[in-house]
Amino acid sequence: MAKPVNAIVVHSPHSGRSALLSQALTHTQEAGVYISQVISIAELDGLPAQGASWRAKGIDIAIAAGGDGLVGGVVAHIAESGLPLGILPLGTANDIARSLNMPLDIAQAAQLFISGKELEIDIGAAQPAEQAPHLTNPSPEGPVLSHIPSQKHGYFVHALIAGLNVQFARLATNVVTRQRYGRFTYSLAALEVLRNHQSLDVEIHFTGLALPQTKQFSQQQGAAEPSTSMNQTTLRCRALQVTVINAPIFGGAWHLSIPGAQVNDRLLDVVVIEEVVTRKLSTKLAQFFDLQKQSIAPESYEGSSSFAHNPADLSRIPGIHHLQAQGITITTEADPQDVTLDGEVRGQTPMHVRLASERLRVMAPG
């Protein structure tokens, strides 16, 4: 007789589909999972990482019942503990679940806890960062309200972002705003940020920068690790946003995919959007997500950073840089600046970002 699967379920009452939690728990139990505890993510805020403790108590899987921010919060507790992750996609965008090709139907998602395949994926580690979201200034021009000790570190599965997304998160994750506007919260927050955005003078140092041609050759030969340069390269520009990406899907139902990104390639994808493209932002981003349109001649880079000519830059679109590296350091002219990890404000610049030494185990489709 098979050993029963013992689970702890972590949820958020503010997830986009949180009303389906009871139904999701029923489907999970019907799939053959014994739920030993259901806990709100807020109850874990401020506690040390719980993964090892949960394993010692006989927990076989930690299930995140929510969206990307909730998944990131759970992973902050189980990263590098060996405890597998399960996902009940009850969020608004569910980009992590989409990146892992998971069904958004909760009954089908629950079946993966028993019949799915254990997939090992990369996760990012950032310093300074913390496990729980911290208080932010409602004004993008205002100073940070909480200073994170430099020795603290945190993890992310989907993306780490400095710039526009922080301003967006201030609005989109506000409980009062969510209660008032419901499913329109994200759209209203996006419009407000674009109307009142602030740019940043940034300096980014890359380590373990991937070389596209060599990387392609290595993959053809079946190499386990990408070929990277040991040199440290620097990009300086005035940016709308710096995004460090691990899971490649963005935009929820729009299902936008970062070209060439994978969840287990031992590389972080770094996308920098310069201020120069503000007026044509939507067009440039549409081009970026469609490789067939990236046929711009080098002469078109006039007025953009000269770093666009770096052979490691995968983008051929003026004002948008896309590089792959094993680690980066982000500084701004006005440190500290708040940074989001998986959509929640949990970090600050100057920030060092790297791949976690141990991959995360996730129950995913076979």
Structure description:
- The protein is of the alpha+beta class.
- The protein has 2 domains: 5-115, Rossmann fold (3-Layer(aba) Sandwich), CATH 3.40.50; 124-356, Tumour Suppressor Smad4 (Sandwich), CATH 2.60.200.40.
- It is built from 10 helices and 18 strands.
- It has helices at 21-30, 51-56, 68-78, 95-99, 106-115, 164-172, 175-181, 185-195, 212-220, 281-288; strands spanning 5-11, 33-40, 61-66, 85-89, 117-121, 124-129, 154-156, 159-163, 200-210, 228-229, 233-245, 249-250, 256-257, 268-274, 320-332, 338-341, 344-355, 360-364.
- Strands 6, 7, 8, 9, 10, 11, 14, 15, 16 and 17 form a 10-stranded antiparallel sheet that branches. A 4-stranded parallel sheet has the order 2-1-3-4, with helices on both faces. Strands 5-18 form a two-stranded antiparallel sheet.
Fill in the keyword field for this structure.
4-stranded parallel sheet; Rossmann fold; alpha+beta; 366 residues; 10-stranded antiparallel sheet; globular; single chain; Tumour Suppressor Smad4
Show the helix and strand layout.
Blueprint: E1 5-11, H1 21-30, E2 33-40, H2 51-56, E3 61-66, H3 68-78, E4 85-89, H4 95-99, H5 106-115, E5 117-121, E6 124-129, E7 154-156, E8 159-163, H6 164-172, H7 175-181, H8 185-195, E9 200-210, H9 212-220, E10 228-229, E11 233-245, E12 249-250, E13 256-257, E14 268-274, H10 281-288, E15 320-332, E16 338-341, E17 344-355, E18 360-364
Parallel strand pairs: 1-2, 1-3, 3-4
Antiparallel strand pairs: 5-18, 6-7, 6-17, 8-11, 8-16, 9-10, 9-11, 9-15, 11-14, 12-13, 14-15, 15-17, 16-17
Helix pairs in contact: 1-5, 6-8
